[in-house]
């Protein structure tokens, strides 16, 4: 299972009719070229000599894995046909099958994951930017990687073009598949074949296990069964348990026909939930919460998908290189990879690697970042434009910040904030490694925005969450999330989302957008948070995310009705797209935020948001306008307020929120001479922590 999911494409499932047709065409096309390719590529022939399939039990459930070994020899006709019918992948290596457990090796000991995580300081988010040894400017000469002479791409330029899109160099499309590529291709396809065989075998065994079927109606609620495992201290028989799981789902799928007489749906569902807890190792609370998101069969697929790792993906850093060049360099180092899917121009899915991906020269030079494919989505939805001002409210370790910077081509500015100081240091590491020059790193509780600074063209809130979308990565979520978490986290998320909205500039000529995302699939952390924001901030509306795949957000859920536009929000599931579970929503701010009702008795804001002050939306006047306003003589007391206003305007023009400034009380002399309060030195205060305003492009607050 692990190998299979790692091999599977990420993104929208292909249209079956179309894809099989196109595969056939590709096969026919390739068949005519095959002899030629062989000659050109040095005639490496590969054949699996043994295909092993095994079914093993683990604490968390059954998994099956496939393994294949290869030797030189002629492929059989059947193998040929199969190989040719599949898309090629790129490889520079022939090595043993990677399994889920190989991920750490692949990443190079330090498991690097710039992805989202729930808990601060979680060991899962430790892409702390090995600011390792680059060659001076951090870039390696491309020649260094191109000279090997092992060209790597399919000789079919059309196919190549389709797979490497706009950001690619056209001339490279001429390159041929190498012997190494054929080897990688062969291995991939054999693995898939073996996986299919193992799956078929598993199904057969499951069918054979269904001995408890009485006629057409499985006896899943047998008393004997009920006592087994759940109540008893004996280790459950996982095969029997799995068999009962599938039987119960069958019954729930076709209840009137398959349910035992006198048994209710509730009884079957209760049994199924118990079995899910036992088989996959979830707490009853979380199992039920996740189960309720789907019809029973789909829930089963979701729980199954959480048992296998998602593919390893790297994002090309287009500030430093192009995807094609990066692919070529890595292939030359023995990495087998292919583009992540048509939906991304920068992602590469890695199948296997002879080198640790977190320590290659290309990694250290910032040519790529290890990043889950689903983490691309919020940034794609945000769609930052060049020269804009962007706020990334919860930014560490910086996977999305650096992606934003790349899309903005290092222009404009990004305020990359995270409340966790040590994670913010990792963020700085990544910013440096990837050559980001337009980011300002800060270390505030994001609830302090927009008091710290506001008026952004776009705001990303990739919120801290429970991580129910990344259980495959962090199985501890199965048991360590409690009801309390699902009250506290949404509460925080709601507060942060209001602050995100208040930090956006509705008058922005290019933007005024806010993206809210989580790596969780629960409704409490997603649709309910969005609904709350829509209610509290009538000055925003939901807009399309622009993402080409994803399941629509819930418009109603367990008796709750949400805004009809909620379907514009998008959900991503591991079982549907082979990506981490994710939620992405996009708002457009259409009017100024209402005055803060901080002390107005709102139960969700009264105690916690009284420190949030709305952005001062007083129009920023020009110098000329100020001059005009100066006509008509001076009245000391009246002028003071204009002078103060002018000073506030000046601060705002410099990107500083005047409300966050510590004003010195004017001395009596200053007051008499029309002088007003002055900002307290160069520091801008937010709470008690200063922002250091440095001359360099990256400004670091309080992080040493
Ligand atoms: C999902 S992770 C962000 C991942 C990041 N966007 C990326 O792509 O690399 C959530 C982050 O929120 C931060 N966080 C939690 N509470 C916060 C708060 N009140 N203010 C700001 N950041 C917070 C955590 O430290 C964590 O780094």
UniProtKB/TrEMBL annotation:
Polar residues compositional bias, start-end: 54-79
KW Magnesium (keyword) present: no
Protein's UniProt keywords contain Ribonucleoprotein: no
CDD domains in the record: AdoMet_MTases
Keywords: Methyltransferase, Nucleus, Ribosome biogenesis, RNA-binding, S-adenosyl-L-methionine, Transferase
Family stated for the protein in its record: Belongs to the class I-like SAM-binding methyltransferase superfamily. RsmB/NOP family.
Name of the protein in question: SAM-dependent MTase RsmB/NOP-type domain-containing protein
